Structure formats: C-alpha cells, structure tokens
Amino acid sequence: MIVLGSDHGGLELKEAIQAALAARGLDVNDYGTDNGDSVDYPDFAEKVAGAVSRGDAELGILVCGTGIGMSIVANKFPGVRAALATDEFMAQMAKEHNNANILVLGGRVLTAEKAVKLVNIWLDTHYEGGRHQRRLDKITQLETALRAGKM
Ligand code: RB5
C-alpha cells in the first residue's frame, strides 16, 4: 500500500504519480488535497507520514511546491525516513542507501514526466543494507532517546 499526499503546489504532480502507480497495478490511497485551493502542507504530511509511522502503509509519497516543507514535517514522525529527490541519482540513493519509506518531490521543481520517472526508480531500487543498516539503526536509537527525553 502506497499513500499519497500533496498541497496545492504539488497537486498536478500527485495526480500524474497516482495515475502511473495505478497503471503499475499498485494499491494506492490518496489523502489529498484534491483541488487547487490553497492549503497547508503540514496537514497532508501528517496524514501520509502518520500512516507510514503507524505501519498502516508501507510507503508514502508527498509533494509540495519545493518538497522542503513536506520533508521537514514528515521526518518528525518516528520510523519515517522521508527523502527529497530532485534527480534520478537522489531517487536511487534514497532507497539504496537510506531505505527511504517516503519519497518527497517538488511540484514547482519537476515536470510530471520526471517526477514519475523518479518514483519508478525509487520503487524499483533495492535497499543495500550492510553498512547502511548500521546508520539507520543509529537513527532509530536517536529517535528512541529523544522520545524518552534522554537527549
Ligand atoms: C506553498 O506555497 C509552498 O510553500 C509549499 O508548497 C511548499 O513549497 C513548502 O515547502
């Protein structure tokens, strides 16, 4: 299950991504926004990152104007590794090294065609594990310590 969310600045890309994921036969849940009215990106980042953090969805995709605001919010959720990608290499590394469970894109940065390409790269790339798992484990340890008020 992949969950999607955007603000008005990411709506067009989100719609293109949703169509591409559906064409791949993937199970997609779109949390909005669903029209061009100005909305606040934290509300949609919360829905998508919350679903991934709780384990209700395996993966998520967030789109705002730049991808920056969505990244800031999503990475506050425990267990979320949200990666902003602007090119093919970043989309590949987001999975290969960071095992990002949320891909973040900028609707005012990418064309719809390129955004779909980056999504496909991220989905089709395998996490390498090994030394990268040690680093991800350190992120989890930091989260645990911060939540326990030990830092
Ligand atoms: C909304 O205008 C814009 O600030 C938002 O889409 C995003 O780029 C924030 O990071």
Briefly characterize the structure.
The chain has helices spanning 11-23, 41-54, 68-74, 88-96, 112-124, 131-147; strands spanning 2-6, 28-30, 59-64, 82-84, 102-106. It is an alpha/beta fold and 151 residues long.
Question: How would you describe this protein?
Answer:
The protein has a single domain, classed as Ribose 5-phosphate Isomerase B, Chain: A. The protein is built from six helices and five strands, in the order βαβαβαβαβαα. It is 48% helix and 15% strand. It is an alpha/beta fold and 151 residues long. The model has no long low-confidence stretch (mean pLDDT 98). The site of D-ribose has 8 residues, from helix 3.
Spatial sequence of strands, sheet with the most strands: 2-1-3-5-4
Instruction: Assign the CATH class.
Output: Alpha Beta
What is the CA-based Rg, rounded?
15 Å
Q: For this entry, what is the oligomeric state of its chains?
A: single chain
Q: Which cofactors or ions or other ligands sit in this model?
A: D-ribose
Strand content: 5-15%
In CATH, the architecture is 3-Layer(aba) Sandwich
Number of domains: 1
Quickly count the helices: 6
Largest sheet: 5 strands, parallel
CATH superfamily: Sugar-phosphate isomerase, RpiB/LacA/LacB
Number of strands: 5
Would you give the CATH topology?
A: Ribose 5-phosphate Isomerase B, Chain: A
Shape: globular
Identify low-pLDDT runs: none
**What's the average pLDDT?**
98
